[in-house]
Design the sequence.
């Protein structure tokens, strides 16, 4: 297990509530439900002030989402880097799992093999490993994507709506997230006709 010593201090629930999404913290590390005797770098899943009851949800840089009660002495708590603190062991990264949604026009076998070859050429044969592969056909139809408030009365004339993306494949919507408090509305693509009079 590759770890690095970091000087940090443990936060209270009140201090954690003052953190934002970009504030890096350390939480007890684990993998597939197996606890490890060290900590993992992590970030809150939403601003600390938006949590209630002294419980917080964090996502580690290894992709695991865990719930933490900072004031519970029986748990590992939430820590932040502090030169005046104490040393903790922080788990290091061995590399990254690139879960890439890549659209390949035509999707021929030769095109896919060219991608894999390019990755091997960039990092060296045997270094980049294909752990899984899922090839899904993308329907040849285009849609327009809008956002509207998740709550409230629907506006029939569409004035309370923001345009997010036009003329895209519907499969792409799976990999987008609406703004906080808004929801997606997908409609068949319509060409925009410019009716501005010309001189």
Sequence:
């Amino acid at each position: 297990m590759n770890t690095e010593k970091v000087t940090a201090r443990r936060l209270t629930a009140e201090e954690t509530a003052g953190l934002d999404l970009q504030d890096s913290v350390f939480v007890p590390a684990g993998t597939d439900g197996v606890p490890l005797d060290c900590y993992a770098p992590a970030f809150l899943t939403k601003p600390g002030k938006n949590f209630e009851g002294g419980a917080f949800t964090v996502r580690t840089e290894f992709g695991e989402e865990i719930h933490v009660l900072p004031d519970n002495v029986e748990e590992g708590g939430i820590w932040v880097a502090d030169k005046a603190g104490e040393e903790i062991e922080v788990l290091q990264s061995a590399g990254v799992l690139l879960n890439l949604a890549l659209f390949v026009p035509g999707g021929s076998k030769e095109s896919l093999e060219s991608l894999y070859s390019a990755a091997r050429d960039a990092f060296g044969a045997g270094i980049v490993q294909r752990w899984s592969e899922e090839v899904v056909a993308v329907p040849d139809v285009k849609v327009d994507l809008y956002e509207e408030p998740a709550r409230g009365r629907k506006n029939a004339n569409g004035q309370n709506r923001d345009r997010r993306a036009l003329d895209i494949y519907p499969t792409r919507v799976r990999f987008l997230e609406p703004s906080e408090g808004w929801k997606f509305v997908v409609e068949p693509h319509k060409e925009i006709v410019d009716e501005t009079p010309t001189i």
About this structure: The mean pLDDT is 87. The chain has three domains: 3-91, 97-135, 143-188. The radius of gyration is 23 Å. The first strand starts at residue 3 and ends at 10.
